[in-house]
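Hi everyone, sorry if this is the wrong subforum. Our group has a chain we'd like a structural model of before ordering constructs, and none of us has done structure prediction before. Sequence below.
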Amino acid sequence: MVERGVRFISLYHSQWDHHSDVAGGLRNECGKTDQPSAALIKDLKQRGLLEDTLVIWGGEFGRTPMVETNPSLGRALGRDHHPTAYSIWMAGGGVKGGQTVGTTDDLGFKITSDPVHVHDLQATILHLLGLDHKRLTYHFQGRDFRLTDVEGDVVTKLLA
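Answer:
Right subforum, don't worry. Here is the predicted structure as tokens:
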């Protein structure tokens, strides 16, 4: 699709909401996605398309470091939503490879260094797509609006 000029491609895998059996669920779903994801990056690189193609792999939330169990909902040995600490990876399209930005404590509960707010992530993605998120501001009913709310800074550490 990239070779045919399709500008935006979204691939979606819906089985990541592990409120029960997180260990088994992740083992199963990672088994379905790890090799294809690696093959995509390798294929784009071999074809000379990776430098102009931004690949973003992420989910809806991080997961709490503690076990979620709720018998009334049929949940056991899972993890609940944790919007404070999440993981994504990006490749190509102007991203500097081979690095990690941001860390958490040993439990994965609190951010301990280099926090990246979702507004910063969105500002960075827009920058990599050639858009200045600050220029997307519009004024409506006495308030400024934009895709990154009225916050967000480009995470320059991520840029090649």
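For your construct planning: The mean pLDDT is 92. Residues 8 and 138 are 24 Å apart (CA to CA).
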